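Notes taken during the Thursday session

The instructor put the following on the board and asked us to keep it in front of us for the whole hour. The protein is Coatomer subunit zeta. We were told not to look anything up and to reason only from what is written here. First, the residues (138 in total):
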Amino acid sequence: MLLLVLSTKQPIAGDIILYESHLAVYKHSLDLIIYIIASPSENELMLMSALNSLTDAMSLLLRGQLEKRGVLENLDLVLLCLDETVDDGIIVDTDATAIASRVSRSKPDVTEININEQTIMSAYQTVRDRVAQRIGQL
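Then, after some discussion, the predicted structure tokens were revealed:
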């Protein structure tokens, strides 16, 4: 086993290790560690790029806080984000903003719903007419 200790002034964003004939790329974020595991023949830089885009997209979706609680509360978005990044072992996309835009929930368009007095009166008239028809059938 090889232990490599790097001493830099900037914090290391992620690491690449080879463990029991598997290549592991991981990244720390508060109380969360995100891994991508691959065969040793894979390109480490491409795996690191996929991991960075995945974490950046998740950070965009979770409003900057990649922590355990946020990931668990939004697990559906996280899994969709993972699916948009990697599909059946193939890296599909490495653009974090594109991934986040495809995954993000669409906001309901409330401008199309116009409720006013006329709408309520129309609904009331419809209900009254239908009730009168039902009573007339009895």
